[in-house]
Amino acid sequence: MAAQKYSLEDIRLRLNELDDQLLQLLSERRKLSIEVVKNKVETSKPVRDAVREQQLLTKLIHNGNEHYQLDAPYITKIFHTIIEDSVLLQQSYLQSLENPPSDQNPKCRVAFLGAKGSYSHLATREYFSRKNLNLVELNSDHFKDITETVESGHADYGVLPIENTSSGSINEVYDLLQNTKLHIVGELTLTVEHCLLSTQEIAIEDIKVLYSHPQPLKQCSEFISHMKDVTLESCISTANAMQRVAEMNSDSIAAIGNASSGKLYGLQSIKSNIANQTENYTRFIIVARQAVEVSHQIPAKTTLIMSTPQKAGSLVSALLVLQKLGINITKLESRPIMGNPWEEMFYVDLEVHLNSEPMQQALQELQKLTNYLKVLGCYPIENIKPTSVE
């Protein structure tokens, strides 16, 4: 007897049913993740258990291979995403206990660079998606506008890009941190996917003017160098660039930005993956007027700025204090001190809780070795490292 053949419509209906079941199971898993963290509150266990995660992933890979003909990379990719979501969900719950909102449905006013669809806007949406807040979005034209809006109380938070894997540190933001009274309360690493966008399908060699923010133009410099007779126009954000290209509606202009954001302005991608590096990420920091308390069950990062005496070995002496106390440095950046020629301010990111004994001891010793020392903030590490398996 011939095997029964299903119509395409029947197959699609069955796929829809399975997708709904997957959504239901993911929702149930999320709820159980919250029950897990509630138990961890009582037992004071850390959010992440590397051994448990490795055992779980190893078992899933084995079962998927053995019983369901699913390969290891497929299973690993899916469950890396699920584990990351679970960790961030649990961290958010613990942070809500440490920093309870003042009312039941709090409004959260957030200032960011550019208009709807800018990378800063995408980062804002992603970071606050787990915060259970009523988000009010405030777009700004310049980085300084963001810090001033938060400092004046017209916004509760500001989102600032601080560094990119392709173009490096964003010096203007580092310079703003020297003089602000704001605290760093969070961070986010966003995958940046640069595309060439236009209102219509056009040949790359026909593009005469290219619009974008200076950072994406820098991050796509290799691709741009192969474009002939093109004029670069800097905009306040990628969203502003897309908006201008959409309004002009010309077959000789294009913008660099995110493909999904481009659709908001009626633009289509005519060339994707144009960044110098295929792995292109931007790290954002979240700033606020008040510092946050970080649960001891969550991995934390502390950022400080310091200046050292202008003599040989002064910076090395300060860094040796951190090494002696076993504190890992994840970032060291220097910037000139405005008004003090030839003097530099050092920005240091450390993988450590501010209130931990090693960090408190480090601060005491650094006070004696530096001309200036200030903690910019202590905040949860939200760049979740994937669970490793052999």
From TrEMBL:
Residues 8-35 form a coiled coil. It is found in: Cytoplasm. GO terms for biological process: chorismate metabolic process; L-phenylalanine biosynthetic process. CDD domains: ACT_CM-PDT, PBP2_Ct-PDT_like. Its EC number is 4.2.1.51, 5.4.99.5. InterPro entries: ACT-like_dom_sf (IPR045865), ACT_dom (IPR002912), Chor_mutase/pphenate_deHydtase (IPR008242), Chorismate_II_sf (IPR036263), CM_dom_sf (IPR036979), CM_II_prokaryot (IPR002701), CM_P_1 (IPR010952), Preph_deHydtase (IPR001086). Residues 303-380 form the ACT domain. One of its GO terms (cellular component) is cytoplasm. Residues 109-289 form the Prephenate dehydratase domain. The record marks 282 as: Essential for prephenate dehydratase activity. GO terms for molecular function: chorismate mutase activity; prephenate dehydratase activity. Substrate binds at residues 12, 29, 40, 49, 53, 86, 90. Its main location: cytoplasm. It catalyses: prephenate + H(+) = 3-phenylpyruvate + CO2 + H2O; chorismate = prephenate. Residues 2-94 form the Chorismate mutase domain. It holds the Pfam family PDT. Keywords: Amino-acid biosynthesis, Aromatic amino acid biosynthesis, Coiled coil, Cytoplasm, Isomerase, Lyase, Multifunctional enzyme, Phenylalanine biosynthesis. Catalyzes the Claisen rearrangement of chorismate to prephenate and the decarboxylation/dehydration of prephenate to phenylpyruvate. NCBIfam families: CM_P_1, PRK11898.1. This is Bifunctional chorismate mutase/prephenate dehydratase. It comes from Vibrio aerogenes CECT 7868. The gene is pheA.
